[in-house]
Design brief:
- By secondary structure, this protein is mainly alpha-helical.
- It folds into two domains: 50 residues; 67 residues, no CATH class.
- The protein is 61% helix and 0% strand.
- It is built from six helices and no strands.
- It starts with a helix and ends in an 8-residue tail after the last helix.
């Protein structure tokens, strides 16, 4: 076997082991894969690529739980959710609702900046006027 092929294979083997450790799987499964790759590298790599990679991308939250969470969010926000004041074509409100499943609520002071200087001036003024603490996102 040529030396460059051995180096490439070794690099692939080490890469798979690093990926296994970084995935933070169950320790017993990780150790089993590492031992298989160590003692039977060729067979281990083939088996890992066919069986070890989780292709299903399981959802963290089911659709049902997500809908329950949406309903709970609306109930918790209650009357502070603004429906009538925001036109349907407001892109920012629609984007917020679609991406974060968040709703526009009253009692907030939201400003959009397209340049750094006005934002910096307002930020420094807000920091000077803060009485207790500051929330920054």
């Amino acid at each position: 076997m040529p030396i460059w092929l051995r180096i490439l294979f070794g690099f692939l083997l080490v890469s798979v082991i690093v990926i296994l450790i970084a995935q933070n799987r169950h320790p017993v499964k990780t150790l089993a894969w590492i031992l298989l790759l160590f003692f039977l590298p060729v067979i281990g790599l083939v088996l890992y690529f066919f069986l070890g990679i989780n292709k299903s991308r399981e959802r963290l939250v089911s659709e049902e739980k997500l809908n329950q969470l949406k309903q709970k969010t609306l109930e918790t926000a209650g009357e502070s959710v603004v429906h009538d004041e925001i036109p349907e074509d407001n892109e920012t409100a629609n984007l917020l609702r679609m991406i974060n499943n968040s709703y526009v609520t009253s009692g907030n002071d939201v400003r959009f900046y397209t340049a750094f200087d006005p934002m910096e001036a307002d930020l420094l003024e807000d920091i000077r006027n803060a009485k207790h603490h500051i929330h920054f996102q």
